[in-house]
């Protein structure tokens, strides 16, 4: 069980009001987990504003992150340095007078604009020999066990011990916004299960979402299939299998996914960004894991259930591969739809008696 250990972080200077920039990873799940870094910084310096550099895709998440002053939306090309765009971004950063930048990715590309902007303190791990671009270099990243450790430790003083548990990410979605969203989409007020069938990498996708949707519908639940445009075909397959109670809510706006996860009574998702979103909101969340290790990649927030292949331990688990190359994807195929639906109903029953 994860404990929200914000009290373990020492407050240093309540008078310091110089703004801080975080340059995060912009995969959705990593971006959500990056809110832990915000919480550590805000505890250390309560009066230093914290801004996030964000992609257009992740920008809606910033609106729900307590402690973030602003998101700076800037989409840099993935395949090249794009020095012209870097100079544009640097000019924007310079105008905001940041005193500190925390650069999470270990790449040259991520450190160029903060350096060009002349931000006095630029903190990051050694990577791609970024001497000069990073002037507060940290070492020992490879010794840190989890991705969240590699990120959040940059928000602590150099050499400071890690807390026993990091403060958990938080997304706060106003109830009136959820209500308006349900009404606008004609979703009613009945109990609903949100399914997140997508993921980065086919191997992380559970096999039986269509069958699970059908079972939920038969047991009286509305079912919402949530995801991006890449999940549209799968969502239509799930809706066709589940019948009239199943709605395809996939689309291009991540805000729609946030609101769906906030409105649902329970969320079921693969190891994906939507799983992290639902958990950070506080929706009871079931994460389905096969090729990845929950210790490394599960949300810091407590999951309602972690569902894994349990009939027989596979020697290849966890392979961490994006495509299965052995055992015919048994780590996911051996998790039955009825098992997942039964667990979800137990979760809902536990919540109803609290």
Automatic annotation (TrEMBL):
<keyword id="KW-0328">Glycosyltransferase</keyword>
<dbReference type="GO" id="GO:0005829">
    <property type="term" value="C:cytosol"/>
</dbReference>
<dbReference type="InterPro" id="IPR002201">
    <property type="entry name" value="Glyco_trans_9"/>
</dbReference>
<dbReference type="InterPro" id="IPR051199">
    <property type="entry name" value="LPS_LOS_Heptosyltrfase"/>
</dbReference>
<dbReference type="InterPro" id="IPR011910">
    <property type="entry name" value="RfaF"/>
</dbReference>
<comment type="similarity">
    <text>Belongs to the glycosyltransferase 9 family.</text>
</comment>
<dbReference type="GO" id="GO:0009244">
    <property type="term" value="P:lipopolysaccharide core region biosynthetic process"/>
</dbReference>
<dbReference type="GO" id="GO:0008713">
    <property type="term" value="F:ADP-heptose-lipopolysaccharide heptosyltransferase activity"/>
</dbReference>
<protein>
    <recommendedName>
        <fullName>lipopolysaccharide heptosyltransferase II</fullName>
        <ecNumber>2.4.99.24</ecNumber>
    </recommendedName>
</protein>
<dbReference type="Pfam" id="PF01075">
    <property type="entry name" value="Glyco_transf_9"/>
</dbReference>
<keyword id="KW-0808">Transferase</keyword>
């Amino acid at each position: 069980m994860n404990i929200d250990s914000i009290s373990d972080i020492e407050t240093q200077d309540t008078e310091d009001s110089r703004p801080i920039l975080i340059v995060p990873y912009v995969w959705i799940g990593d971006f959500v987990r990056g809110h832990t870094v915000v919480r550590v910084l805000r505890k250390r310096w309560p009066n230093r504003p914290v801004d996030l550099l964000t992609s257009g895709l992740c920008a809606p998440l910033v609106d729900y992150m307590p402690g973030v002053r602003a998101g700076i939306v800037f989409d840099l090309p993935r395949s090249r340095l794009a020095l012209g765009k870097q100079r544009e971004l640097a000019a924007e950063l310079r105008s905001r007078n940041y005193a500190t930048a925390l650069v999470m990715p270990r790449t040259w590309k991520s450190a160029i604009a903060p350096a060009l902007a002349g931000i006095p303190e630029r903190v990051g791990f050694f990577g791609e020999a970024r001497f000069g671009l990073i002037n507060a270099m940290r070492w020992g990243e490879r010794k840190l066990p989890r991705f969240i450790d590699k990120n959040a430790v940059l928000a602590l003083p150099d050499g400071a011990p890690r807390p026993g548990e990091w403060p958990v990410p938080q997304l706060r979605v106003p109830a009136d916004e959820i209500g308006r969203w349900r009404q606008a989409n004609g979703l009613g007020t009945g109990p609903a299960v949100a399914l997140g069938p997508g993921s980065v990498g086919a191997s992380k996708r559970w096999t039986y979402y269509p069958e699970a949707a059908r079972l939920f519908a038969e047991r009286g639940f509305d079912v919402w299939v949530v995801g991006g445009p890449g999940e549209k075909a799968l969502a239509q397959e799930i809706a066709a299998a589940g019948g009239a109670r199943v709605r395809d809510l996939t689309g291009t706006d991540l805000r729609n996914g946030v609101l769906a996860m906030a409105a649902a009574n329970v969320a079921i998702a693969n190891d994906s960004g939507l799983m992290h979103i639902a958990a950070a909101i506080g929706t009871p969340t079931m994460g389905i894991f096969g090729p990845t290790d929950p210790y490394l990649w599960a949300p810091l927030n407590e999951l309602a259930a972690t569902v894994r292949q349990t009939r027989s331990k596979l020697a290849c688990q966890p392979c961490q591969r994006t495509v299965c190359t052995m055992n015919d994807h048994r780590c996911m195929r051996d998790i039955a739809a009825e098992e997942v639906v039964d667990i979800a109903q137990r979760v809902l029953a536990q919540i109803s008696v609290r």
